[in-house]
């Protein structure tokens, strides 16, 4: 009988030594192939922004920085020139009772942002991408609305920057607006634009809070009376509450922080707790700034000062701290304006691009967006207050439609959330708030009609 148990060397005609050499060469070839495969794998967003490979500890630090930047991007986008004007006007109108409106608007804003950040963050898709998944073409329609509103709003933000530098340094308002735009351009021309964006919005937010806090202390407001009105308001104005909501989470502002989270790659069910926490903190930061500004102006009003005219906030700061107060108002207005220029441009361009767009391309498009806004501001030569009214009116149309898409995904498109079971209580809360945003949209349309009349 034949023996069928052959060794490798007998089959191939090779010696045992040659077989071992051949196996070693094959092993080295496999290692080379695996190395080339790993080098062609997609680079995580965090590594793209930092420009280097990161270990686990470094990656966690980058994620924390990106989340901090995202929440401050949303907060400082909301704290623009219109935010300051609204707060000053309503404080003079309602006095200490304005505290109640601030707290109610914060609660509603948190309900909006919890839903927006969670749907976008868990899905890993931006709002217009989700819109196109729900109904082809819908996302690009929303993107057109956001980009149009963002452009108009950014003209107002640039104008606000000019007024801020005028109050701070006495610089011509037009040149001040141009300088504000150029600084914002510098952020996006940076080699590590994402990191630069996170750092500058955090720095500007902290500066605004500290400076406003100082003036709030100097003006000696009746804090006890303000706190009492939080619970037992002397006057309640539904119009004021809804106006605050529209100014804080209307238009592009709604999506600023959530889109930054997606760009940073902090997405998926595993990050839902971090995403939700950051969405709440972003509104808390905005609320702290508004309450400090309210107290600063309330102290002046309660002290008997008569504020009248267009720029009530500047008058209040000057009354509280003299010439220094006026310069500090310039700091706050300029910081609010430049951070809003950055936020409006970044978010608008995030709607005009997709997740596949290269970061450098996105940065260059953002630079172009800022320069167009600055050019239009320079050429129009209109009063900044008119530009801000138009911006607010256009912005109010965006929230109802975009928010409806996100709520539809929460209720009906679990497949877009990777199978994540969306909390029913949060979806119900979001739906109730959405009904309020429809009313806000109608009010915005009437505002545009009145402006044209």
TrEMBL record:
User: Which UniProt keywords are given for this protein, alphabetically ordered?
Assistant: Membrane, Transmembrane, Transmembrane helix
Cited Pfam families = Nramp (PF01566)
Q: Tell where it localizes.
A: Membrane
Protein's recorded name:
Uncharacterized protein
Q: Where is the composition biased (Polar residues)?
A: 1-12
Annotated spans, Disordered? 1-52
- Residue ranges of the TM segments: 66-84, 90-112, 133-155, 167-189, 196-216, 236-258, 279-308, 328-352, 364-381, 387-410, 422-442
Principal location listed in the UniProt entry: membrane
Q: InterPro entries attached here?
A: NRAMP_fam
Q: How does it sit in the membrane?
A: Multi-pass membrane protein
């Amino acid at each position: 009988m034949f023996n069928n148990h052959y060794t490798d060397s007998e089959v191939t005609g090779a010696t045992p030594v040659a077989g071992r050499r051949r196996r070693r060469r094959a092993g080295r070839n496999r290692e080379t192939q695996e190395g080339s495969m790993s080098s062609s794998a997609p680079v995580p967003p965090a590594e793209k922004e930092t420009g280097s490979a990161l270990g686990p500890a470094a990656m966690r630090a980058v994620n924390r920085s990106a989340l901090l930047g995202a929440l401050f991007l949303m907060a400082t986008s909301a704290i623009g020139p219109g935010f300051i004007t609204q707060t000053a006007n309503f404080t003079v109108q309602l006095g200490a009772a304005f505290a109640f409106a601030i707290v109610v608007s914060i609660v509603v804003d948190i309900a909006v942002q919890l839903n927006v950040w969670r749907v976008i963050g868990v899905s890993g898709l931006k709002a217009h991408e989700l819109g196109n998944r729900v109904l082809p073409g819908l996302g690009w329609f929303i993107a057109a609305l956001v980009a149009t509103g963002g452009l108009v709003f950014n003209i107002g933000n640039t104008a606000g920057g000019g007024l801020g530098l005028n109050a701070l340094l006495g610089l011509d308002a037009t040149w001040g607006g141009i300088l504000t735009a150029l600084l914002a351009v510098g952020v996006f021309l940076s080699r590590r634009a994402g990191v630069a964006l996170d750092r500058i919005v955090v720095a500007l937010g902290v500066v605004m809070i500290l400076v406003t806090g100082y003036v709030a202390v100097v003006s000696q407001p009746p804090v006890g009376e303000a706190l009492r009105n939080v619970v037992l308001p002397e006057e309640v104005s539904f119009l004021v509450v809804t106006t605050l909501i529209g100014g804080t989470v209307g238009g592009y502002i709604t999506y600023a922080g959530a889109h930054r989270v997606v760009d940073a790659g902090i997405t998926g069910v595993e990050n839902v707790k971090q995403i939700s926490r950051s969405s709440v903190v972003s509104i808390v930061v905005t609320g702290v700034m508004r309450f400090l500004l309210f107290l600063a102006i309330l102290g002046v009003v309660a002290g008997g000062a008569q504020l009248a005219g267009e720029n009530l906030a500047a008058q209040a700061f000057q009354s509280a701290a003299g010439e220094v107060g006026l310069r500090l108002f310039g700091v706050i207005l300029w910081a609010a304006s430049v951070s809003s220029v950055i936020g409006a441009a970044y978010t608008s361009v995030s709607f005009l691009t997709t997740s596949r767009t290269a970061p450098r391309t996105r940065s260059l498009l953002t630079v172009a967006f800022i320069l167009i806004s600055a050019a239009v501001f320079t050429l129009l030569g209109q009063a900044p207050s008119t530009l801000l009214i138009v911006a607010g009116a256009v912005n109010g149309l965006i929230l109802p439609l975009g928010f409806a898409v996100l709520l539809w995904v929460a209720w009906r498109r679990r497949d877009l959330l990777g199978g994540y079971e969306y909390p029913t209580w949060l979806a119900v809360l979001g739906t109730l708030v959405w009904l309020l945003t429809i009313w806000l949209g109608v009010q915005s349309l009437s505002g545009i009609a009145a402006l044209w009349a």
